[in-house]
Amino acid sequence: MTSENSALTAHKQSIANAMAGNKEAWLALFDENAVIHDPVGRSAHDPEAKGFCGREEHERFWDMMIGPSNLELVPKMRIPCGPLHCAVHMESTNRIGEKATVMDMIAVYEVNDAGKLISLNVYWDAEALNEQFKKLGFI
């Protein structure tokens, strides 16, 4: 592939804004009707596995999951699939004081023709994260 696809561009901007704590720039990457599943499936913050759809829900997701975090997101492998999709294997480190959690994840990004994210599906093991929280004394 000689030029980067739009989904890879959105992925790079998304993780850069998340790590920088730039909420408005991160939100601006999403189409108003985009759906975020992070993680995919049921979780403590999405017990019905409906995802987060619409600007208000995207803001709520940020305020709950990204804003309070001290994240380092390191891509291990980026796989473009056509011009509007990509999958990314990443490692997420969240520093909490002197302690940290580390998770492997697979994120699947889809953008529309305008380059706005319409779907973000992130696969990671919520139970494994809870086990790390227990070992670190957070729960």
In short:
The protein is α+β, with helices and mostly antiparallel strands and 139 residues long. Helix content is 31%, strand content 38%. The longest helix is centred in the first third of the chain and has 15 residues, at 6-20.
Walkthrough of the structure:
By secondary structure, the chain is α+β, with helices and mostly antiparallel strands. The chain has one domain: Nuclear Transport Factor 2, Chain: A (Roll). Helix content is 31%, strand content 38%. The chain has four helices and six strands. The protein has helices at residues 6-20, 23-27, 55-66, 126-136; strands at residues 30-37, 52-53, 71-81, 85-96, 99-111, 117-123. The protein has a six-stranded mixed sheet. The relative contact order is 0.20. The mean pLDDT is 95.
